Structures are given as structure tokens and as C-alpha cells.
TrEMBL record:
Domain Carbohydrate kinase PfkB: 16-290
InterPro entries, A to Z: 1-PFruKinase, PfkB_dom, Ribokinase-like, Tagatose/fructose_Pkinase
GO molecular function: 1-phosphofructokinase activity
Alphabetic keyword roster: ATP-binding, Kinase, Nucleotide-binding, Transferase
Keyword Plastid in record: no
EC number: 2.7.1.56
Listed name of the protein: 1-phosphofructokinase
Similarity remark: Belongs to the carbohydrate kinase PfkB family.
Species name: Streptomyces atriruber
Gene: pfkB
Length: 315
């Protein structure tokens, strides 16, 4: 069972449009409404793979009730933490060339009692969990140290933690030694305070995060592939993608694939890449099912192409 924690969930609406022209009336050619938030997406991908998952998340107002309903319809067990504020609603606009424009609302501010209730619920529901995936931004009211407290409590209870966040929240949590952190290239560059131009730059940055406490680093490098740096060294994996339809939730699908496959080693890295490659070829934030995966197309190597220039260098 994989338990996910999403401190700032959302109700996501995705519109597919021929083009996005500012100041004009744009008619959508397709639309979707999905429960959102990074941890929620991980649960959705885990459930799509037929693995049990429990989603812990604060929910409030009509949007929160709809998020719970949509998750229930997807066979995901929800452990809601009632909050006074309304769950945020986000909008994504997808163009045919893969360009995605997102408008993310800030979300409600959590009171101190709501913050503690969220931590307590994680503790109550984590029994029997193979992994706890803590994902996404922190809502207003939560200090950057909140994830660090969650990692410390989870480790004290004997659980393994996967952390997917960024900025001060990521740096604060590293001291508690999360079992794996999953930054993208931009988040990795932000964490080490310098730009990344090559795969080798990303390897060095990942090693620095390990020096700060992360036991393993699973880094998404966009179209170039993914990198895993752990006690066994560095491995690089990639897979061809025919056409990018939407990258919403692709990183979350990758983390789900990694954890489903055990959360360690090259085989888990290959699963992460297969899930991510499948996700970007699906509309909106649709999570891939096993039939969408092409595992034989994934290439994994310990001969990391250090000099390869990143398609999208991280500033």
C-alpha cells in the first residue's frame, strides 16, 4: 500500500484549445475535470496500476467535496482532514503543440489545529504502508519545516518516505534524511543555487542533495530522461515519446512508477520513466494504466552521459 500526503490539493480543470490568444474568445475542443495536487496524482497513478493507495489530504467546501467524490469514483481510499477554507481550483490550458498554460490558485490557509490534524491522520493511516509519498507545495499557514516534521515522525514509526517538493520546504526536510527526493531540473537547480546545463551538472547537484541528507535522488530532466543517484552510484534512463499532449502530472506518474516497482535501483528507475513517458502522451492529467506503458522502450544505463547538454537547461 502506498500512502500519499497532499497538503494543498486542488480541483483541476483542463481545457484543450487550438491556440491560446490573449484578449480573444477561445473555444475549447476538449475539457476534463480531475482531482489534483501532486500526491493526489501519485495516488491516481498507483490506483491505475492496480495497487492499493490511501490519499490523506485537507478538504474544504464544495470543491473539496468534489475532489473526494472524484477520487472515490477512481477507487482511491480517501482520508480527508476537514478544513474551514475551500479547496483551491486550478485551470490548465493545453495547446496542440504540447504548450501548457497553468493558473494555480493559492489554496486555503490551514489553522494550527488543522495542521496538527493532518499530521495525526498521516500517523493513523500509515500502518502497513510500504511508502509514504509527501508531495507538492505547502498551503498558507504551514511553515517550511512542516515536511521535516512529517518525515521525522514517519521515520520514527518505521515508514519509508518519498518527498516531492521544492524550495525551503525541500531544504528543511533534507536534514531528516528522506529515503528519496524527486526534484525536476528547475527544482534541483534552485536547491543548489546554480544553473544546470548538462546531465553531469544534474548528477553533481543530486550528489549535493545526498550530502545534505537525501538517501536517494530521482531527478526528472524533462525530455532528456531521468536520473537516479543513490548509494549504488548514478543511473540514467530515457524513453522515446511520439508526441507530448500534456505534461500535467507526468512527474507524479513517474514517482508512482518508481514506488510501485519498489522505490530503489535501476528497475524502479525504468518503471518511473515508462510511467512518465506514457503520461505525457495522455490528455489533461490522465494517469496511465498498464496498457499505456511501453517498458521495452526504456533504456537504463550506469554509463551516464555526463556531457549531454540538457534540452531545457535549468536556470
Amino acid at each position: 500500500m502506498i500512502l500519499t500526503v497532499t497538503p494543498n490539493p486542488s480541483l483541476d480543470r483542463t481545457y484543450e484549445v487550438p491556440s491560446l490568444d490573449r484578449g480573444e474568445v477561445v473555444r475549447a475542443t476538449g475539457e476534463r475535470m480531475d482531482p489534483g495536487g501532486k500526491g493526489v496524482n501519485v495516488s491516481r497513478a498507483v490506483a491505475a496500476a492496480g495497487v492499493r493507495t490511501v490519499a490523506v489530504l485537507p478538504l474544504g467546501g464544495a470543491p473539496g467535496a468534489l475532489v473526494a467524490q472524484l477520487l472515490d469514483e477512481q477507487g482511491i481510499e480517501v482520508a480527508p482532514v476537514p478544513v474551514t477554507g475551500q479547496t483551491r481550483s486550478n485551470i490548465a490550458v493545453a495547446e496542440p503543440d504540447g504548450t501548457l498554460t497553468k493558473i494555480n490558485a493559492p489554496g486555503p490557509e490551514l489553522a494550527e489545529r488543522e495542521q496538527e490534524s493532518l499530521l495525526a491522520t498521516v500517523g493513523e493511516r500509515s500502518a502497513g504502508a510500504d511508502w509514504i509519498a509527501c508531495c507538492g507545495s505547502l498551503p498558507r499557514g504551514l511553515e517550511p519545516s512542516w515536511y521535516a516534521e512529517l518525515v521525522a515522525r514517519a521515520h520514527a514509526a518505521g515508514a519509508r518516505i518519498a518527498l516531492d517538493t521544492s524550495g525551503p520546504a525541500l531544504l528543511a526536510a533534507l536534514a531528516e534524511r528522506p529515503d528519496v527526493v524527486k526534484p525536476n531540473a528547475e527544482e534541483l537547480a534552485e536547491a543548489v543555487g546554480r544553473p544546470l546545463a548538462t546531465v553531469g551538472d544534474a548528477v553533481k547537484a543530486a550528489e549535493e542533495l545526498r550530502e545534505l541528507g537525501a538517501r536517494a535522488v530521482l531527478a526528472s530532466l524533462g525530455a532528456d530522461g531521468q536520473l537516479l543517484v543513490d548509494d549504488a552510484g548514478a543511473h540514467f534512463a530515457s524513453a522515446p515519446v511520439d508526441a507530448v499532449r500534456s505534461n500535467v502530472g507526468a512527474g507524479d506518474s513517474s514517482l508512482a512508477g518508481f514506488l510501485i516497482a519498489g522505490g530503489t535501483g535501476p528497475a524502479a528507475l525504468a518503471s518511473a520513466v515508462a510511467h512518465g513517458a506514457a503520461a505525457v502522451q495522455l490528455p489533461g492529467s490522465v494517469m496511465p494504466s498498464p496498457s499505456d506503458l511501453v517498458p521495452d522502450a526504456v533504456t537504463v544505463t550506469a554509463d551516464v552521459p555526463l556531457d549531454r547538454v540538457l534540452t531545457e537547461p535549468a536556470a
